Give the backbone structure.
Amino acid sequence: MTTECNQSSFEFHGLFQRKVIAKFDGGNITSDAGILLLREVEKRTGIIAGLTACFSDHRDPEQIEHTVQELLAQRIYGLCLGYEDLNDHDQLRADPMLAVAVEKADPLGENRRQTSDRGKAMAGKSTLNRLELTGAEVRSGERYKKIAMDTEKVDGWLVDVFIQSHSSAPSDMVLDLDSTDDTIHGNQEGRFYHGYYGNYCYLPLYIFSGGHLLCARLRRSNIDGAAGAVDELKRIVRQIRQVWPEVKIIIRADSGFCRDELLTWCENETNHVDYVIGLAKNVRLNKEIAEEMKSAEAQFKGTARPARMFKDFRYQTRDSWSCERRVVGKAEFMEKGPNPRYIVTSLSPEQMDARGLYEDFYCARGDMENRIKEQQLDMFADRTSAATMRANQLRLYLSSVAYMLMHALRRLGLKDTDLARAQCQTIRLKLLKIGAQVRVTVRKIWISLAGGYPYAEAFAAVYRNLQALPLRC
């Protein structure tokens, strides 16, 4: 029996006397109508437009069908909607709803130059791939790879977006640093085995301030986890202080960033940056809090509940530190036994006591790990399968911008709603994945949203919040 490869209809189990038959004949129907909300966010933030300014286009203007901004928007909106691969765009390019978001004047693609492209308003995977394949400089005679990214401009622009999101100068801010593993499975440039993570991976560095992403740097994994952190902080702090010279900045990170170079740079009077950073435990540190640990153990035995005490003391390593510094030790005893932890800080006891410094301030850095998880999993930052580091850095930038757009939707559109603290995947499923029929006429684009959509009230609330904001582009 031969296999029917081009099946046109699908008959399912009947409903009483009625047959249930499905066909792909609904016309212009989309499953991603919620992209309209992200388009409104873009109109009020100019995030994608700002990223476009970091690229130079060397193509012949007479031959261009897809502008750089349209190509970037198509990739970024695709990531927001859950389409992580370039291959997905060979089908997505025919979606009129995405074409509307990308700002295509001909959302049905009826007037494309090539007959084979008609009905597909947007770019295919090969055209989009040219963004990744173009080098830092476009060689003369190059036929296809002509859209060059300026990484320095992108790095500066990420910080500009953070600054522009504030209506007034903040009195203080926390910069959270962290690195994570990005597993790779091919022979990509920069491929190294990392003993701690137990696989071949990259080791990207992230810097956040609250939910705002300020740095996403792809790095090889054969380095110290703190490598390059000072250089990134130098440029970020300098850029922030040019706008807000009086803002108080505190660096927060785990023990992987406890390096004398970073601590010394913060302590330099010209930088005026404070830090609260984890400190790896050792025999000398454990000895410092031995009495507190005994007291915590006694309290645990009396209550059968975890007990913790804190000690504030001065400490200096034997070789690696250039000076003595304030250290806070947590002496905690749990069912599994002692659990000592330490942080080093430039803040004085008068500014913040030991318990508050550890429990209220340092432990709050766990929220950054949630932001990285969103970036890696929900926005597909781990799709670094291109051959070169430059191409993979571009992919990391694109996923970063997709996150920034989703965070802007959360910050501006979802304010004062039940989804105000929802993660990107939840926002995608509840607000972006909406079925709709799209009808294009000479004067209007009609979008008939699914009548059974269960979050219509949340959609309306987001719409009202965004409409109350001024347009930027």
The radius of gyration is 26 Å.
